[in-house]
UniProtKB/TrEMBL annotation:
Top-level taxonomy: Bacteria, Pseudomonadati, Bacteroidota, Flavobacteriia, Flavobacteriales
Gene3D superfamilies: Single-stranded right-handed beta-helix, Pectin lyase-like (2.160.20.10)
MF GO annotations: lyase activity; polygalacturonase activity
Domain (Rhamnogalacturonase A/B/Epimerase-like pectate lyase) ranges: 53-105
Alphabetical list of PROSITE patterns matching this protein: POLYGALACTURONASE
Family (UniProt): Belongs to the glycosyl hydrolase 28 family.
Protein name: Pectate lyase superfamily protein
Record InterPro entries: GH28_Enzymes, Glyco_hydro_28, PbH1, Pectin_lyas_fold, Pectin_lyase_fold/virulence, RHGA/B-epi-like_pectate_lyase
Gene Ontology BP, a term: carbohydrate metabolic process
Pfam hit, one: Pect-lyase_RHGA_epim
Keywords: Glycosidase, Hydrolase, Lyase
Amino acid sequence: MKKYALILFALIISISVSGQYKPWTSPEQPLREINTLKKQIVKPDFRKKDYFVTDFGAIGDGKTKNTEAFKKAIEKCSAEGGGRVIVPKGVFLTGAIYLKSNVNLHVSEGATILFSQDSNDYPIVFTRWEGMECMNYSSLIYAYEEENIAVTGKGTLDGNSDNDHWWFWCGAKKYGWNESRPGRQNPARAKLHEYMAQKKDPRERIFGDGYYLRPNFVQPYKSKNFYMADVLVKNSPMWNLNPVLCENVLIERIKVISHGPNNDGFDPESCKNVWIKDSYFDTGDDCIAIKSGRDEDGRGIGKPAENHIIENCEMKDGHGGVVIGSEIAGGAKNIYAIGNVMDSKNLDRALRIKTSSSRGGIIENVFFYNTKVGAYKEAAVRFNMHYEKPGNFIPTIRNVWVENMVVEKGGKYAILSDAYESSPVTDFTMINAKINGVEIPYKVDFLRNVTLKNVTVNGQPLTDLKK
């Protein structure tokens, strides 16, 4: 009975949105959509006034804690109409930084903002942790319902995390945890899952000291017009760049080098109109992972990831190059990855869509274009509807277009798919793909409306995907 109920649910969802769904029939359609979207995503303008943190008492000796100096400079800048808060050359130790409207935090070349390893320097704020809402440590740089905010400059943001600070809280021995250490996130993570399932008020899901849920690095929350450019981001406690429920996000020319646990590079969550370009990722987890909330929280808020461009980025180490999921219960649509380069013996997949029936949601209109891949381990394209425990919310994946992909040395598969019979991956197109060095051309189930044109695997034409 449960199987038939799931099939019926999937059919109802399909019928309810069928009037809106139209798969692409040529690459010109998504390319036009990209050009239109680029005109809508613009960086914020700032008043031409500079505020040096050193004028507010900051000392760049790497030892003096400058939390108050940053706070005073940012508050004064915002109160007077905005401008740049400048961090000059030096190493400036600080706790959490709160960005206020119309402030551009400018980290000069030769400057480092070094974040404190003391959890007491991170106040409890409203946040998302692995796609679940709660009260927890502030991200290292945080904003809530602010507008026109930025982090720019050729300096460095150093999260100051290692196996003795923050990372071991994940509970893995490879990151420094052992039985003699008090910190481990597992019980609190399980409790947060319980609170979410019970639909407990997120502001009553209070964590912080004693719970060991690591903060993310940069998290503007419910904010508009967020810009980030040129900085080096390294050694994050957890996810690196994590805008949540934001609109108009532009990221360019940044470098993320961070190899701790769950150190995703860029995780836009439930955001609309996002453009990241000309950036570099060398990370301990997915390079770019697009999200929209986990399970009850993601479905309850119902805000999809929408209108994202990933352009001319380089992905080195990382589990996935461009990933959609797994916290994707709010759905995702209109995701365009163009002109990206990936190459690493530690890269598992180039394009991965991962979800489960505990998530649900519709993932549609994914355009993966002009991609060069050196090496990967598992699959060039990976669909997975069984990523975590099953539930009663069958996901939908449809209209995925992959064109002009070249792989020099592939891994086990070219294409790998694990879907539901009641909800097959629908309208998958692959054109002009040359995938070499693969052990097995494909392993798939439950694909519908597949188009393959000029696709070769190990020099042999691939014309069909049969289970």
